[in-house]
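Morning, I've got a small favour to ask if you have a moment. It would help a lot if you went through both lines with me. I owe you a coffee for this, so here goes:
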Amino acid sequence: MAHDAPQATGPSKLVIRNIGLILSGALEKPILDGDTIVAENGKITAIGRFKDLDTEGATTIVEANGTTVAPGLIDSHVHPVAGDWTPRQNQIGWIDSNLHGGVTTMISAGEVHMPGRPRDVVGLKAMAIFAQRAFWNLRPGGVKVHAGAPVIECEMVEEDFRELAAAGVKLLGEVGLGGVKDGPTARKMVGWARKYGIQSTIHTGGPSIPGSGLIDKDVVLEADTDVVGHINGGHTALPDDQIRCICEGCKRGLEIVHNGNERSALFTLRIAREMGDLHRVILGTDAPAGSGVQPLGILRMVSMLSSLGDLPAELAFCLATGNTARMRQLDCGLIEVGRSADFVIMDKAQHSPGKNILESVQLGDLPGIGMTIIDGIVRTQRSRNTPPAGRVPEVVAK
């Protein structure tokens, strides 16, 4: 298991050449023209045709062999605790396993599975700051885990949010997993969080862990969090009319998760498309959870929404990359100059009936992952979790 990920020790230049397909992560232009990407010191510096780009002086050259390069996948909803261990399933290495599923960035929705999680204000603030610091210093396998998401309690005052923000906390855990379960209190605290630059998410649907409860459309709409967490339930979803009311009644992010109701996920996708609001849809797993850890959870969501939701595969990948990056204000998730050089390199799985990776995904198959790259550094090669790819990239010079 990889704990302390390798870091660049000096100037670096990555060249990925002979790419068959570049998925940008952006809904407005999901496919880019080009066969080469150049990144220097962890940032993308050029995208285009090999003959037109400056590829001299590369410290690492990846021969893509006609495979597909996409932004590293982003899991918008996870519950980390300590390093790469989860007490919910007593499992070690779950983050590294997700890296083998193409996930290069994770967003905490609260460190709620911490044994003995404090509920008093001093304790919950201390735990949030600890988690933020710990995952800033430790990146399992290189994965960027944005953690330190306190679960709000009724005793909190505005000064608590100011202190958290000053200490570097940028997220709230799911509203509704603590003592705050009513709309007016939630809205007040969400407003304080927003004032100090802290992004908020709300639990949506039936209870998931002891202490949580039903959060229905009225609470969701009144709380006005930045993201409607697992709108398809975690696990139990709201009725269709309430989901529609949430989609139509706010303009916030609509998060669909793997550990939720699949039918409700497809219903949410359909409503968002009817409204012309596909940009509001982001993807998460809500893992670790009672149903376990799903290293391929984000890939499975992309495949399900594409195949059963009749969404072109290149757009489905945007929900797991660029949409989340823009909503979460991250510098990854899009293949564009200046962004972090975080990539997943894939091809259609061997023996898939699809003619290419996009058709394969739209038929419901998962792609085979051949490599992940974070900050311009190769982190994994052939995935131990996905089906074998038809073609695989290789490092030819370093």
Summary: The chain has two domains: 13-71+335-396, 73-294.
